[in-house]
Amino acid sequence: xxxxxxxxxGARVQRLExxxxxxxxxxxxxxxxxxxxxxxAFCRSDESHARILRIDTxxxxxxxxxxxxxxxxDLEGACRPLRATSRMxxxxxxxxxxxxxxxxRYAGExxxxxxxxxxxxxxxxxERVAIDYEPLPAATDPEAAxxxxxxxxxxxxASNVIVDREFARxxxxxxxxxxxxRVSGCFRMGRKTxxxxxxxxxxxxYDEGRRRLTLHSCTxxxxxxxxxxxxxxxxxGHRLRVVxxxxxxxxxxxxxxxxxxxxxxxxxxxxxRPVKWTSDRREDLMSTTQAFDEVVRAELGVDEDGAxxxxxxxxxxxxxxxxxxxxxxxxxxxxxxxxxxxPYRVPDYRGRVRAAATPxxxxxxxxxxxxxPAVFAMERLLDMAARRLGMDPRDIRRxxxxxxxxxxxxxPSGLVWDRAAFTGCLERACETIGYDxxxxxxxxxxxxxxxxxxxxxxxxxxxxxxxxxxxxxxxPINTGTESAAIRIDSTGxxxxxxxxxxxxxxxxxxLAQVVAEELGARLEDVEIVHGDSAALSHxxxxxxxxxxxxxxxxxIVCARSLREKVIxxxxxxxxxxxxxxxVTGGAVSVAxxxxxxxxRELARAVYTEMGRxxxxxxERVDLEATGVYDPFWGTTSPATHAxxxxxxxxxxxxxxxxxxxxxxxxxxxxxxIADGQVHGGVAQxxxxxxxxxxxxxxxxxxxxASFVDYVVPSAAEIPSMEVEHLETSAENNVxxxxxxxxxxTIGAPAAVANAIADxxxxxxxxxxxxxxxxxxxxxxxxxxxxxRMETGPGGRGRGNRFTANQTNSGGRSESxxxxxxxxx
Amino acid sequence: xxxxxxxxRDVEVTVNGTxxxxxxxxxxxxxxxxxxxxxLTGTHVGCEHGVCGCCTVRLDGAAVRSCILxxxxxxxxxIETVEGLADGESLHPLQExxxxxxxxxxxxxxxxxxxxxxxxxxxYPDPDExxxxxxxxxxxxxxxxYQSIVAAVLDAARRLRQGG
Lengths: 824, 164
Description:
Shape of chain B: globular
Order of helices and strands of chain B: HEEHEEEHHHH
Largest sheet of chain A: 7 strands, mixed
Helix content of chain B: 25-40%
CATH architecture of the largest domain in chain A: 2-Layer Sandwich
Helix content of chain A: 25-40%
Number of helices of chain B: 6
Shape of chain A: globular
Distance between the termini of chain A: 40 Å
CATH superfamily of the largest domain in chain A: Aldehyde oxidase/xanthine dehydrogenase, molybdopterin binding domain
CATH class of the largest domain in chain B: Alpha Beta
CATH topology of the largest domain in chain A: Aldehyde Oxidoreductase, domain 4
Structural class of chain B: alpha+beta
Number of strands of chain A: 28
Strand order of the largest sheet of chain B: 2-1-5-3-4
Oligomer: heterodimer
């Protein structure tokens, strides 16, 4: 399947990463071994909000194999303070200490670090650190935390309100007052965690001879981590290298700078020994950034034909204890407000958003960032309005989606949608799932007492956000651009270096496809280097559905300028006009002749065989190029998801029977990889809709601190999906690409929720829609009716899917409302 | 720490056909033994409580979770890990099917899925989709949505029935 010319871009090429990963030869951070390494175990707070009265490390320090026990007192002056700053009005920055000092602000916050010869010994000793706490009052409910007299989490702030913003256009109140139908709800998705299967891990090593620090990190953003550590530790970039080797999933969890990264870096330098920390799952569930925890009170007004007149919302984000670097705690709730109006024409809008600091783990980016809760609320409101009007859910979307002649469309928050297949995705999704036939089937099934529902969800996201928008929040970093460097070395091999990094997206393959096609190389001759801050002057990493657009764009710009050099050298060597030189398949040739040189021969002639080229050509044509790409605005990626679900009338278990995604990611680079992005995103969205929930009790204690309690769906719960790509050309970026990484998670919670609401005839406002929640929602009278409607056992057809002991029980945990997983 | 915990024990195992002898603490997990004592880092650890399935290896042929077994429990037994699947540069048909179907992304859970699936296909060479989903439901993948993994296992079953 390799070496396809023309058309490497768009080919279903097998991934170049696969052989090493399949053979067990990948290299993740925890796979790195260093002689003399010290292993870190953290003592984490078991209080959610408390003053630290005393820390006694003496016994731990004497434990076998212990090299050091470190507390905040030992780190004074070790680095500059870490604060996520922003120019957003009303934003209050919080200082993120490397280890908690006077106070702890969530259960799981690191208080002390034990360094020992092995992880086992470090954990043994960590149990001997004694910490006395004085518990403090805590407002764990986000709305309660907003009150002026609420217990304050950060004494140096004026309140617990981290940010308070409003987006408005027109007069939403007047529009709602004049609406024929008004619907409203209080929507909550519940707190989630990205749950990458590789827990976080870091290894820092310090070369005392060269005074050089290297941090191996599972980060998604080696460039951001390098630049931040350079500031914090006051080191120049050439003495500080951040490497992200193979990384086992990210999904936003690994896109912020973590204090554990800072700590291992400080200690490796201080102790002159490699320092390694690998999180366990419990720590990951307590300390990795969480997400989607907003209360969205929203009201929608439509006219008698279903046309949207106005929308207003009060959004409160439960952002946890600290603002994450560099994104800030505002990153998610603000996006809920700015994206709430979705892909629709909404003339009048007012959305106020407040972020409440609470004694819970910090929130941060998670696949979709703000869009999943926004889309959940808006798509539910549309279905609620349609139900009131007796209108079909498809028709109300047809009525309101921004139409082809209306682009660019300015959404009420100021976001601008460029031309993309908004209505096309809706129509394609409905066609693919057979919407009309399903409605007939549903009517027949209902008559038999089965509870089948169809749910639609349409959305648009902004991907590959360029410098024009990226500067808006006033963060101290530039996320708008990416750079590339490509060289043909003296052996003729092509190496292309990027500032993005991979956590499984397959960018070693997609970027190689782009470079090979644009340069005229063979795929197998191109090696992609990524995830190494030392490889380029500037780069940030992979997040926000940007790598295809930013790095793909840089690949094109850079490959084209290298190709010019190749042509110039070849025109001398093959004695032909540049216009007649063809570069293809890793060789240069003169059109219409048999004169031809491979890249290898060309490279020898340029670098080694002096005399083949005139001196001035050799000095100019070095077979290397660099390039920077800035999409400036960004590119719109729309989609419609369609879900068919069945709810068991006795157990209230939800089964997703069919799932269709019609999405527009512009020009597809590799269908195998694009489909995989959608599949994985939808699986996380279904998890968010049905299973996953971080439950904290009223005192702030996490009740879902294992994979038994935080239920990540397995192969038994996730259906096969049908994915349709509508490749509307994206003229606003050089590759014609639109981002695809996050969409699946954005659309799926809303589509599944709408399908359940359709099946049961109730309004779903809270996710995950666990059997317990549905049981309570449907009420005793309707439950009895449901039981009578049931025709008998075996009606669901796949009963034996849930008989194995290793799958989800669909039951309830004793401690919370989340479902549990049976022991395996 | 009591002596019973710290006293080193001899462990002799056959890993991917090679006999390995080590002295280890009784509390050392089989996963850590494979990864850190023997340097076989293809076996991954994702939860350390037996749920995610990343650390699955075969112990006397049976698929087991090496994070909730001790190395000493494997004494005298035969272990197969992901490193033993391929024949040199030549991938096993199951590995090839994974690549053909896009059944891996970050690759972290992949060794566990491979070792689970290979044992399953030994026992059930001609499964249907539902059986495959059931068999894989003890392993978690956060990247693929499972569809491509299920397709790969079904395809591998066909290839293996046809002699690889």
